[in-house]
Every structure is written in C-alpha cells, then in structure tokens.
Design brief:
By secondary structure, the protein is mainly β. The chain has no helices and 12 strands.
Length: 149
C-alpha cells in the first residue's frame, strides 16, 4: 500500500492541488526524455563552444513535458574518444494514469558535468525521444566543442 499526500492551497478564486511523488508509485515510469530538436527555447543542448582539456564543465540538456507531471531524473553519459553520448531521463505518468496533468509544454533541465582530456574537437550527442512525432522514436542531436590544451 502506498500513500499519496495532497496539499491544497486556496487563493482568491483559485484552488491549487499538489501531490507529493512517492518513488514507489506504480503510476510513474522512468523514460528517455523528449527532445524538441527544432527551434526550442531553450535549445535541446546548451554547451560552451570551447573548453580547456582536463577542466570540468557543464552541459545542460533540456527535455520537454508538462510542468506538473514530468520530472527530470538525471541521465547517463558515455565517453568514447572524442564522442560524448548523453541520454536524459524523465519520470512521467504511465498511460491511463489517474494524475491530473496540465496541458502545457515546459523545459526540464538535465545538467551533465563533463571533463574532456584530449585537445581537439569533441562531439556531444544527445539521444532522446523525438517531440515532433506521435509515436515514440529515438533521435539525436549533436554539437561540437573545441577542446584546447
């Protein structure tokens, strides 16, 4: 059995309900995040154009989902030579869930700390679910970063 806390806040003419998410909630699932690859603000990936070899820097990947039922949940990163592969994850309701979700489209930030050791050009590839398709399909976006000695 799991309990879900509900908090009600009454403002003049408006009632707001907020649920506390229980990590064992069977109505939630962890999925690869949705990327808006064309014209999003903020863009799907924000990275510095140039970094110093051996110095840690931050790249932020933005996934998209509604503001109250989508929660950024970290990501995975693999480095292979000059290629860095970033996969952001979100927690979302399962199909047919009982949560009430807003019909909005909001960016969710996924910061990644990266250290590149070899000077040259590094490729940062973000893999996510494509926002522009009705069915789930994976897509990627790649940007380059100059790595200076």
């Amino acid at each position: 059995m799991h309990h879900r806390a509900i908090l009600g806040v009454v403002l003049p003419g408006l009632v707001l309900l907020a649920g506390c998410h229980d990590p064992t909630d069977h109505e939630k699932q962890r999925v690869i995040g949705v990327l808006d690859l064309v014209g999003a603000n903020p863009p799907a990936i924000v990275a510095p154009p140039e970094v110093a070899a051996g110095r840690r820097f931050t790249v932020t990947v933005y996934t998209w989902g509604n503001s109250d039922c989508t929660l950024a949940d970290g990501g995975s990163m693999t480095v292979s030579g000059e290629l860095v592969r970033l996969v952001p994850y979100d927690i979302i309701p399962i199909p047919g869930h009982s949560d009430v979700c807003r019909d909005d489209w909001t960016a969710h930030a996924h910061p990644f700390g990266i250290t590149l050791t070899l000077p040259g050009t590094a490729r940062l590839r973000v893999v996510g679910r494509r926002a522009a398709r009705a069915e789930d399909s994976l897509d990627s976006l790649e940007v380059t970063v100059a790595v200076t000695p």
